Every structure is written in C-alpha cells, then in structure tokens.
Amino acid sequence: MIGWKSKPPHRGVEVSGFKRLCQNVFVVCHGPFAFHGLMETNAEIARLTREVARLRKQLDELRQFITIKREDELPGKPASLALRCGTIVLCNSKHPERTQAVFSATEKGPLLSLCGSDEEARLSLLVGEKGAYLELFGKGEKAGVRVRVDEDSSRGEVGVFDANKPRAAMKAGEDGSAGVAVMHDGGFPRALLRTDGRCGEFIATNQDLITAVSIASDSELGAALIVHDTAGRPAASLCSTRTGGVVLVNDSHGNILGSLPAKREQE
Length: 267
Description:
This protein is of the alpha+beta class. It has helices at residues 11-30, 32-63, and strands at 66-70, 79-83, 87-91, 99-105, 110-115, 121-128, 131-137, 143-150, 156-162, 165-172, 178-183, 189-195, 200-205, 211-219, 222-228, 234-241, 244-250, 256-261.
C-alpha cells in the first residue's frame, strides 16, 4: 500500500503512474537485460556440461590404467593402488623437461633405462625370452659392460668394452666349465683362459691369431708349457710326466731336435 502525506493526486494521475510502474517492471523482468542474463546462464550451463563430459571421458580412460583396491580383511582397511600402463617416465622435479628414467613394456620384454645428465642412457636392463640382459654405457651411449643370463641354462656371461670395442669376456659353459677371453680390436682374442672339472688351460695368440704360448695343467703328457713358432707349431715344451720332467725342442717342421729327460734319484 502506498501512502501520501498530502491528499492523493487525481485518480487519472494515480492510474497512469501505476501503469508506468508496471511497464518499467515488465521491461526489467522481460526486457533486453533479462534476456542477456538468461543467455549468459545458458552458455555457462552448456560450457559446464561439456567440461563434465570431458572430465568423465578422461576418468573412464584413467580407470583402464588405475585400480584402487581396499583390503577389508586387514586392520584399518588399507587401500592399494595398481597401475597398468605401457611406459613410465621419471623426471627431475626441478627440471621436469629432463628425463632421468624410463620404464616401459616392449615386444622383447620389460625394459628399464636410467639416463645421465645429458638424458642419454647409462643403464639398460631388459628381461626377454632368452634371459636377462644388462648394459652399462658411457657418453654417446657407447657400451662399457654387458651382462647376460641364459634363460634355460641360467649360465651367465660378462663382456667388457672400450667404447663399444670388446676387450674381455667371461662366460660359464657346460659341464662346469668356464672361460675368460681378452681381446683386441675387432673382437679377436689374444689370450684365453679355460677351466673344467679336469684341468685348466691358458692360451696366448699372436696378431695373426695363431697360438704362441699354451699352458695346460693336464695335457696328454701331463702338465705342460709349450712355446709355439709363428706358424703355431711347438718350438719348445716343458712337461711334467709320471717319470719326471721333460724338455723338448722342435725344429721349424715340428720334429723333435732334442730332449732333456729328468734323472731319477738313485734309491
């Protein structure tokens, strides 16, 4: 109710004033201002609807890789998180653009790579069908050490490299045997050490890969030290037999020129 301190205006003035008031209210509630606000509200609702749909899609995608399981039978009902993915990349928190490690699933098997400050691999560990394989690298990803374990026999082997050039190898063989080889450029051995349940043997070769020196703890003649010529033929031999020590000297054709048998002490 509207009150006037003086006498009310003419009835026609009162009616016309009330009419203008109603018109103004209609303009405010249903005019261009109300329409603009409604449009903004509808646009915001549409944007939020799209955002919720996008987040729901992302959540559905994440559920393929992340599983949370609660252990109801344990005290406190702790939760465990299982992550299923193809690749995990670890980065430095202060320098997120720098990769420090990569753990990935490949066709050959699980692969773990640890990187240096230059983001190049320094360690690579692969577990494949033929066994476990470990590599250590220097700068430029040049191999320094390789370690392998055979899947079926569980026998191991180790290779040492000089910037990808093989220098030494150690390997376990069948029947309890083992071997060590020291190599030059090209992977050709210069010295070999082999052992088994019967004896141990050492062989050194020349630059033409021909045996120059051989030592055996149990040869056909017993323990023996043999020096070979450039063609690989025995030139001189020092042997241990059941009757004593023997020294043999050979010519260039391998024929014995002379020998020095040990004298047995008179009883």
